Amino acid sequence: MAASRFVSRNVMLMNLIRRSYSSVSNVKKGLVLGAFTKGGCYRLTPIADYFDRENQSVLTKNLEVANLKDGKSRIIYKPGLGYNAVAVVGLGPEEACFNHSERFDDKKENIRIAAAAGCTSLQEIDIDEIHIEELSDAEASAEGATLGLWRYQEWKKLEKRKKIPCVIPYKLQNKLDWHNGIIKAEAQNLVRNLAEAPANYMTPSIFAQCAQQELEKVGVQVCIYDEEWAIREKMGSFLSVAKGSNEPLRFLEMKYDGGTDCQPIVLIGKGVTFDSGGISLKPSAKMDEMRGDMAGAACVIGILKAIAELKLPINVIGLTPLCENLPSGKANKPGDIVQASNGKYIQIDNTDAEGRLILADALCYAGKFDPKYIIDLATLTGAVRVALGNVMAGVFTNDDQLWENIECAGHVTGDRMWRLPLVKEYSKRVNSYPGVDVNNVGKCLGAGSCTAAAFLKEFVPENCSWMHIDIAGVAGPEQQLTVPYLNKSSTGRPTRTLIQFLRQIA
């Protein structure tokens, strides 16, 4: 089926809605306004206060009998000015700021949560067009609204799909911030669309077509390589994983030129479009979620699209090795030895530790670009989920400055990171073998995410600043309790944080 079926469907539908609304007179319109809340009291934002005074104190009269809570909404019907309903949302304390213990900006996160709550409450009553104020931070408001309304419903009949309302800013003052928020959130939604698609309709070939379709229209150059190319590049580690499936592998090389002469930043995303575990077969429970094992690669696509739309003055190269990991007569067997493109021999003791095998060759290949930094994103280990749950992504790096930048980006986006150790003791667990250079699982004494990072380090070009982000815990799908503006599905995390990170560097 055509790749376009899966790419930015909600965005396309919203654009169609925008074009058609101008000629439709019976559109159901809703409005989201804010109120700062603290200790059971509230104070309307300036825009909400103005609306209230222009409409005979309709908000005040209704809120007097309602207990407005942080991050929740109260719907008032027929409030005036042609709106069918207005959702007043609790923004938390007006003085909220960076929370040192929580490691993010409370005010921005409160606004994202409130914007999503207001918009989804209006979505539930079938509002067609939602107008939303800045809520004191236009970027956070745009992000919360766009992320909160997203639904993956590609395989439902049209009449059974949830309506995705058109979102329009109300009395907007900070146009650039709103624009940036929309770009970042739509990039994350693109990642969610890709990661949530079923594996039979998101094969390596289809993924490559989706990436090409999305990126070339914003000026990103996309090269799609096949198995013969991988053989010429001596990517024996990557090839060994792909050979277990009948679906042909693909390797994407994507270039964004921001018009500068600086060294490029290389982003690498793990692209296993379905991971059964291979011969080391996974349990059947929740194996369907392994269609999202290409979330790292999807993040790279979303990030590249966003930075192109933001026109950041940097150079970025995206690399995504794409394949399936399946059991067959041609699949890797425990104990097999393969050779990566840097010449190192790898013993494969567990075929379910395949992500690091395909990333190994991508890391080696990244060295050809003389990169300033190499950053890889991968749903790599269940161990990072044990360590951090679905709250934070695990970060490993050999460069303190990279860590400080990514941590700061997480403070802004609310999508937090946590640094984990990358020390020699973990390297010894993967490279201290008498008969082979590296083992893909090592001497297992716990710390599986640390050992996996140590394995990847063996393939990082010499003297290169590198950061590995293990997103297995945060990519989805069970996020509702952790992130209220992301519904229970693939999350697209940490797309916005990497975009923010690159904005800071630029």
TrEMBL record:
Q: Which UniProt keywords apply?
A: Aminopeptidase, Hydrolase, Protease
Q: Which reaction does it catalyse?
A: L-cysteinylglycine + H2O = L-cysteine + glycine; Release of N-terminal proline from a peptide; an S-substituted L-cysteinylglycine + H2O = an S-substituted L-cysteine + glycine; S-benzyl-L-cysteinylglycine + H2O = S-benzyl-L-cysteine + glycine
> According to the UniProt entry, what is the EC number of this protein?
3.4.11.1, 3.4.11.5, 3.4.13.23
Q: Which domain of life does the UniProt lineage start with?
A: Eukaryota
User: One GO term of the cellular component aspect?
Assistant: cytoplasm
The residues forming a coiled coil are none
List GO BP terms, alphabetically.
proteolysis
> MF terms per GO, please?
manganese ion binding; metalloaminopeptidase activity
Q: Which Pfam families match?
A: Peptidase_M17, Peptidase_M17_N
For the keyword Hydrolase, the answer is: yes
PROSITE patterns, per the entry:
CYTOSOL_AP
Q: Where does the record place the Cytosol aminopeptidase domain?
A: 350-357
Which family would the database say this protein is a member of? Belongs to the peptidase M17 family.
Q: What is this protein called?
A: Cytosol aminopeptidase
Could you tell me which species this protein originates from? Rhynocoris fuscipes
